[in-house]
Amino acid sequence: MGMVYAEIELINVIDLEMAKRQVIGEEEVKKMRINMLADSGAFMMAINENVQEVLQLPFIEKRKAVMANRTVEEYDVVGPVEVKFKNRTATCNAFLLKGDAEPLLGAIPMEEMDVLIHPQRQELLVNPEHPEYAVLKMK
Questions:
Q1: Can you give 111-125 as a three-state secondary structure string?
Q2: Which residues in the chain come in under a pLDDT of 70?
């Protein structure tokens, strides 16, 4: 299976809340569109320092992650960030990767948005069984 990328919009959730309360204007909400690797092997989302420079998400904590080569790395976790793909949204935190490392859309936000990786078409799709809205499993 090849790599699957999708255009994702990321929005600073704290800015969204401040805009709802009219503390800042809608135009001041920090957001951006980026092409992310849809990686079902990664649980969390990961953004790089370049994305973080634009979004300015608050630091939450440091966490460790096991890499594909089984080494353990420690990362800053930032958030919350709203993730948008087509008619779907999710809210999550993200690991912060160094420099311009490739951003990853992990399994947790993909599950919340009810999207699927289509390996033959090499694209991220809204779940065709639920095209109008996300349906999540509760058990």
A1: HHHCEEEECCCCEEE
A2: 1
Helices (H), the chain: 13-20, 49-55, 107-113
pTM score > 0.85 for this model? yes
- Joined together, the tokens standing for residue 128 give 């065709």
Q: If you count DSSP H runs as helices and E runs as strands, how many of each does the chain have, helices first?
A: 3, 9
Side chain identity, residue 120: Q
Residue 130 CA to residue 112 CA, distance in Å, equals 13
In this structure, what are the phi and psi dihedrals at residue 100, rounded to the nearest 5 degrees?
-110, 30
pLDDT digits 0-9 by tens, 79-100:
999 999 999 999 999 999 999 9
Domains of the chain with CATH codes: 5-126 (2.40.70.10)
